[in-house]
Amino acid sequence: MSEYIEYGYQSADPHQSHKYLFSVIKNLLADKKKKILDVGCGNGSLVIELLKLGYDAYGIDASIEGITIAKKKYPDRFYILDLSKTHIPSELSDVKFEVIISTEVIEHLHSPRSLISFCKDIFLKNNIKGDLIISTPYHGYFKNLVLAVSNKMDSHFTALWEGGHIKFWSRKSLTKLLTDNGFKVTHFVGCGRLPLLWKSMIVKAELK
Questions:
Q1: Which entry of 5, 13, 133, 176 is 20 to 30 Å from 42 by CA?
Q2: Cβ neighbours of residue 75 under 8 Å, at least 6 residues apart?
Q3: How confident is the model at residue 1 (pLDDT cuts 50, 70, 90)?
């Protein structure tokens, strides 16, 4: 992750995608007592909203800009770290995370397995069968067909976005990635737009 490109955060305001992601994620977090780690937290907006609701949440990200902004709100809840590291920051080494969230991150990674392995290792270190919640832009046969017919492929795949999306996931491919790495998918939710034209999908999986 040494080639990380800053997103250009200006504030801790939620990204537009959080408008349709947050309510679903909140519904998947039934127990406020569980410790939560947001991997790839950006400017910390999701963690900040969870903290306001009484959840015990922390965030890590490679973005110096994002973490600097987030720390202004909650100094002891955010830390700089990218996935080239094999361990979480020392300040969090004794925290037994039971839930890990990663929203709209995996589509940016050359090695998505590194994200899954990173999360899995955190659970194994603490001998916890934790829950992993991942969101990513949705792709499926019908949506792909609509994009092609409407000549929206270029704008959708954002090839000109420096540091943009490089992996495009379907329910099947994301499920396979998780199951191949020792997780069992327990929930799938599409969100944003109409069914099968969803903007994103959220998958919750438990370490087996």
A1: 176
A2: none
A3: very low
Q: Give pLDDT tens digits for 151-160.
A: 888 877 877 7
Q: Residue 109's closest CA among 12, 185, 18, 177?
A: 177
DSSP 108-158: G-S-HHHHHHHHHHHHHHTT---EEEEEEEEE-HHHHHHHHHTT-HHHHHT
Task: Copy the structure tokens of residue 82.
Answer: 């990218």
Query: Do the beta carbons of residue 203 and residue 178 sit within 8 Å?
Result: yes
Please check whether the domain covering 32-207 is classified as CATH 3.40.50.150.
yes
Report how far residue 106's alpha carbon sits from residue 18's, in angstroms, rounded to the nearest whole number: 16
> What is the phi/psi pair of residue 136, to 5°?
-160, 155
SS (H, E, C) 16-41: CCHHHHHHHHHHHCCCCCCEEEEECC
Q: Residue 30: which residues within 8 A CB-CB, separation 6 or more? A: none
Query: Which secondary-structure segment (H or E) carries 184?
Result: strand 183-191
Model-level pTM?
0.91
